[in-house]
Model the fold of this input.
Amino acid sequence: MNFCNKIIASKSQYAEIADHKCHCIKGHTGKCNEFPFLEHLKATAPSVANKIKRDATMTTGAAWKSEDAGPNRILRWVMMLDDDELLKYGLDMSKLKPGVIAKLREKAADYDSCILVAAKLTWLVYQMENAPTPPQDIKFYLEDLFGEMKPGSTLCVICRLPLNFKLFELAARGKAAIETCHKNPRMHNADNVGFGHRECNIAQGNKSLDEFYSWIEGIIERVNSKS
Amino acid sequence: MNFCNKIIASKSQYAEIADHKCHCIKGHTGKCNEFPFLEHLKATAPSVANKIKRDATMTTGAAWKSEDAGPNRILRWVMMLDDDELLKYGLDMSKLKPGVIAKLREKAADYDSCILVAAKLTWLVYQMENAPTPPQDIKFYLEDLFGEMKPGSTLCVICRLPLNFKLFELAARGKAAIETCHKNPRMHNADNVGFGHRECNIAQGNKSLDEFYSWIEGIIERVNSKS
Done:
């Protein structure tokens, strides 16, 4: 698919780092739109649309507030700048702890990758159990990018059980029951991104998927050999 | 083993709920002591001794601070009182959310059980890899209660791998790498208590051990059947 790619005016202080572009199909009629594929979810499930946009384009927030915890959320492509350039935006990386720096840098991704991640997540959401049905134009758009959509076929990246769209609504203290996940290795691009149950994501922790599967396989072997 | 069981004077506001008693062997010489089995760890690894005492006798703290989050930590046997009695101690259960109440009540345990839990945890700690060697009198005391001690034989309750005493030192933001765990069902008594890796405890989450093993077994089956 060829995108329109016209530059969309932005007042963001970070606009000079990466232009915001139109991702309607080239030659489209009507207004330019950075996230045309999210328009239907924006109307039917705005919190899900916001989550997709946020997870696709922003780093995750610091788990606690303190001087050295780093920014709560920042555009992923801003984190591709080097330390000197970041200083111009008021972010002094030298004040952060090595672990925080590594975490922020790991989440860096270029603008185009982030847009495709958002589209891929949208494609996955529409294939969850109990998901709304996409309008034909959005279905066509997403299938052109990522292939045919099969209702109910989106699995948790980690436990491989079907994900239910209704889990987006179950939130405990701001924590959704479905989280955006990265497969192994943890790079932020459309191939590598998916959704997982929150409990699965927590269980996986810092392990890669392969490490996680080996780990739990070892547990099962020890448990079965003893009892 | 028969304990001395003499009452030890206490200034705690909760002393009238349960007497603090001496758990030296009956007929002992020297001063009475509520936790005689912890004396050696108190000298060689005070933070571990404190952790054992705390986890054995106190409820865990609320994860966040707010009016309805409940007390940060409270003696487990205090949580056995009914709501009216708790009100006398300034704890208004009716102000707490049902989930918080359930969590607090689940952690209730009588004084004698808590003491035996502390002794059992001490017995387990001495059998961890790289643990200090207990003096003969404490070894005798603990073996009389729970059986022969085999150095290096204490396993993580969850993943069944040996636990290393040195993991007590690895703490990230106050979180020890070894946590006190309860087997299935989650009752606070000497039979049911053990240690686990923090990452294992997190992975287990709210599941019972049986549920956890079934869950990860299902994951392994799905992963293996697909690849």
